[in-house]
Design goal:
This protein is mainly beta. It is built from 1 helix and 5 strands, in the order E-E-E-H-E-E. The mean pLDDT is 93.
Length: 62
């Protein structure tokens, strides 16, 4: 069975990049810039202040 790891920590780096830490200890920088403007649902995240305000909800980034 596939086990989806939960996000336990996020730290803003720069631009559209967060350092993401998962519950199994895996971590690394994730660049979300390719998603900005790709789908309408992410359009509001062009506002860097809104992007930086991300939080963790239910084990994922919100």
């Amino acid at each position: 069975m596939w086990n989806m790891n939960k996000v336990i920590e996020i730290n803003y780096q720069q631009g559209y990049i967060f350092n993401v830490v998962f519950d199994d200890g895996t971590c690394g920088n994730v660049d979300f810039s390719e998603y900005i403007g790709k789908w309408a649902i992410f359009e509001s995240l062009r506002d860097l202040n809104l992007f930086k305000a991300a939080s963790i909800d239910g084990g994922t980034i919100a």
